[in-house]
Structure formats: C-alpha cells, structure tokens
C-alpha cells in the first residue's frame, strides 16, 4: 500500500508540474488571460472560441482584458500624478476628495471580501506596481514556490491587451520617490538619483543634501544601527553640480546638446539625467574618478 501511495503522490506532482508549465507558457508566449479578477481599470470581453476543440465543443470561450471606460481614465491619471512627483498618499487623498470609486465600489461582485469604501495607500501602490497596465499579461506574480515552473512569475513577451500606460512611463513610475519638502518649504530634487553607482561596493549612491546643494554618498552598507568597523571603506561623496560639469567637459558638451550655459542649473542637470536614462547608461564613481557604464538589460 505504501508503494501505491508513493506512486500516486508522484503522479499528482507530475500532473501539477505539467499544468503549471502549460499555464506559464500560455501566459508568456500567447498572452492568454488565465482567470482571476480583472485589475482596476479593465473589464473582461469575449476573445473568441477556445483554441482547444474539446473545450470549444462545450461552448467555452476565451476572455481578454479591455479598458473599462468608467475606471481606466482614473488609472492613467494616477500614473500621470506619480510621474509628476506626487506621493502615493497624496494620490489616494485626491481620489477620495474627488469621490472616485475605489475597486471595492466599482466592482462589488468581485470584491465581496473588501468592505471599505475608500482609497488606501496600499490600493494605489498596488495599481502603480502592476505591469498589466502596460498591455502585457501576467500570471503567478505572488508565487510562494521555490522550484518548478511556478517559481517565477510569468510576463507575456508582447502586448496582449490595450495599455493604459506606456512601458517607459511605467518603468519611470517605479523609480520615483516623492520629493520631501525641506524646512523652507521647497522640495529637494536630485537629478541623478539612481544613476550613480559605487565603484567599490557596486551599490547605488544615496541622495544626500549637504550645504544647500544636492550631493550623493555611499556608506558601503553601513547604517547608524551598526558600529563602524575598521575594515569599512571610506564613505564616498560627490557633488551633483561638479559631476555634471565633468560629464560635459569629458564628452565635449555633446551629452547636453541643445542646453546652453545660460539656462538654470536645474534645467541642465535634468537634461543630462534624461540623456543618460535614454541612452541606458549609469555613472560608476570610485572616489577618485568616474566612468559611464552601459546598463546590462539581459
């Protein structure tokens, strides 16, 4: 009996592996909608007969996501606000003040487990982090498995439904942190945030406001909750304005082409940062010098 039980358990695991592998391939290669509640801003529409003849004979049909004319504009508005530098909390507050229906109100039949009728920070954050709004299909994003086809989330290789935000804007929204106002009420902005990496420990340099100007530093993983060890490398510092000038000098001004010296410093800094992001390059700084490095997209 124990032998039969072991064989039965193995067959169950094989069947589970085959089903998960098939679903993973359907999501990545075909962009097929595999069930679940449609995300806020979308609705389900008919996508034709089922490709499996047996399922088609039973009358089963495919479904796909399509923009919901009632809620899709609100999703696009959230991304625009995030790209403008607004915090997630302020976006949720404005949605509540405008009386925009939250997901549990817009689709109560599919959200019976939710009883709150207001936007929360978590709800907005989940929407802004959902890659489905770029038009690509996803599956198994919240996996807990560590082995097999269910160990990694699936993302379709091409667009499977109309997008509510471009891929460039979606990626940019993931990198945005709301600018905090300083004691004088003005927001401190760092044009090169996320673009400078440490040549010693390969960490990204932290944005650091020092003497009234933006600077960047790397403490090599050290925090105030730890004692500084003797082996820890010296903290790196670099001023944003000096780094921008050095980039222009080394590249002969070509990276800031079209931006004159008469323009405000912040405008020139933003132009240089945008050029680096568009070209897929980062700055590697080791304390004595810097170099440009191509971002590995593999």
Shape category: globular
Main beta sheet, described? 3 strands, mixed
Number of strands: 10
CATH architecture of one domain: Alpha-Beta Complex
Question: What is the CA-CA span between the terminal residues?
Answer: 50 Å
The strand order across the widest sheet is 5-9-10
The named CATH superfamily of one domain? Putative Large Serine Recombinase, Chain B, Domain 2
CATH topology descriptor of one domain: Hect, E3 ligase catalytic domain fold
The percent of residues in helical segments reads 25-40%
Pfam families: Recombinase, Zn_ribbon_recom
Protein name: Site-specific recombinase
GO molecular function, one term: DNA strand exchange activity
InterPro entries: DNA_bind_recomb_sf, DNA_bind_recombinase_dom, SSR_resolvase, Zn_ribbon_recom_dom
Overview features:
single chain, 298 residues, alpha+beta, Hect, E3 ligase catalytic domain fold, three-stranded mixed sheet, three-stranded antiparallel sheet, 10 strands, 35% helix, Site-specific recombinase
């Amino acid at each position: 009996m124990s032998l039969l039980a072991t064989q039965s358990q193995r067959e169950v695991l094989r069947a589970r592996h085959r089903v998960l592998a098939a679903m993973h391939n359907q999501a990545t290669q075909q962009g097929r909608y595999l069930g679940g509640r449609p995300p806020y801003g979308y609705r389900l529409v008919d996508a034709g007969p089922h490709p499996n003849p047996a399922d088609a004979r039973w009358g089963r049909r495919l479904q796909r996501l399509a923009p919901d004319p009632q809620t899709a504009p609100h999703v696009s508005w959230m991304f625009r606000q995030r790209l403008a530098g607004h915090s997630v909390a302020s976006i949720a507050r404005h949605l509540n003040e405008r009386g925009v229906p939250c997901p549990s109100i817009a689709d109560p039949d599919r959200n019976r487990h939710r009883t709150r009728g207001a936007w929360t920070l978590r709800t907005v954050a989940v929407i802004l982090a959902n890659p489905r709004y770029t038009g690509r299909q996803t599956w198994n994003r919240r996996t807990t498995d560590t082995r097999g086809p269910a160990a990694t989330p699936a993302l379709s290789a091409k667009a499977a439904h109309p997008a509510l935000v471009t891929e460039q804007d979606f990626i940019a929204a993931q990198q945005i942190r709301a600018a905090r106002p300083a004691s004088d009420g003005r927001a401190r902005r760092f044009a090169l945030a996320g673009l400078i990496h440490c040549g010693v420990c390969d960490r990204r340099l932290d944005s650091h406001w020092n003497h009234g100007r933006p600077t960047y530093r790397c403490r090599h993983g050290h925090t105030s909750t730890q004692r500084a060890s003797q082996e820890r490398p010296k903290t790196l510092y670099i001023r944003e304005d000096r780094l921008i000038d050095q980039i222009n000098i080394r590249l002969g001004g070509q990276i800031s082409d079209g931006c004159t010296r008469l323009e405000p410093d912040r405008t020139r800094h933003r132009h240089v940062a945008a050029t680096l992001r568009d070209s897929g390059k980062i700055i590697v700084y080791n304390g004595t010098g810097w170099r440009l490095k191509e971002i590995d997209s593999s």
